[in-house]
Amino acid sequence: MTTVKNALAKLAGYVMLAGILYGLFVVIVVPISMIEKAAAESWPSRRGTITLSYASHRRGARNTAYWFPEICGTYQDTGERFCVTRVRFGRIRWSEGKAQAEEAVAKYPVGREVDIHHAPGNPRNTVLEAVSPWTELYTLLGIGVAFLMLPVVLWVFRKRIASEPGTAT
C-alpha cells in the first residue's frame, strides 16, 4: 500500500513540476508575443496582390510536421515580391497547425488585394493582419499563471486539511 502511495506521490510531484515549467515558459514567452503584437498594430502598410497561397509543412527537430501558410505576392507600388508566413501575431498553434494554415490560405486566395503591414526597421518582418483579437494571448497567459499558482493552492489546501482536528497526516 505504501509503495503505491509513494509512486502516486512521486507522479504527482512530476506532474506539478511539469506544470510549473510550462507555467514559467508561458509567463515568459506570452508577454514577448504581446509586445510584438502591440508594436505591429502601428506598423505602416503597403498594398499588394497575392500571387501564391498554399499551406506548407516542414519537419521540426523531433521529425514532427508543422504547418504554416505561405502567402506570396507583389507590391503594387514597386512590383517587388513579398512572402508572408505569419498572418498575425498572437495566433497560438495548438497542434501541428494544418487546419489554421489551410484556413489562412482560404482567406487569402491568389488574386486578392491586401495590405501588407511591415516593421519600420525591417520590411521583411510582415503580417497581413496587424490588428487582431487579444483573446488567445490573454487565455494562454491565464493558463500559465494558473499552472504556476496550482502548487501554492495545493500546499495551502493540504496545510488546511492537516490542521483540522481528527485528521491524520
Summed up:
The chain is of the alpha+beta class and 169 residues long. It is 46% helix and 25% strand.
Descriptive overview:
The chain has 169 residues and is α+β, with helices and mostly antiparallel strands. It folds into two domains: 2-36 and 139-161; 43-130, Beta Barrel (OB fold (Dihydrolipoamide Acetyltransferase, E2P)), CATH 2.40.50. The protein has three helices and five strands. The chain has helices spanning 2-40, 98-107, 135-163, and strands at residues 45-59, 65-75, 81-84, 113-119, 122-127. A five-stranded antiparallel beta sheet has the order 3-2-1-4-5, with helices on one face. Strand 1 (45-59) and strand 2 form a beta hairpin. Helix 1 (2-40) packs antiparallel against helix 3. It starts with a helix and ends in a 6-residue tail after the last helix. The mean pLDDT is 82.
What tags apply to this protein structure?
single chain, five-stranded antiparallel β-sheet, 169 residues, OB fold (Dihydrolipoamide Acetyltransferase, E2P), alpha+beta
Give me the CATH architecture of the largest domain, please. Beta Barrel
Global geometry:
elongated
Mean pLDDT: 82
- Low-confidence segments: none
Report strand %.
25-35%
Strand order of the largest sheet: 3-2-1-4-5
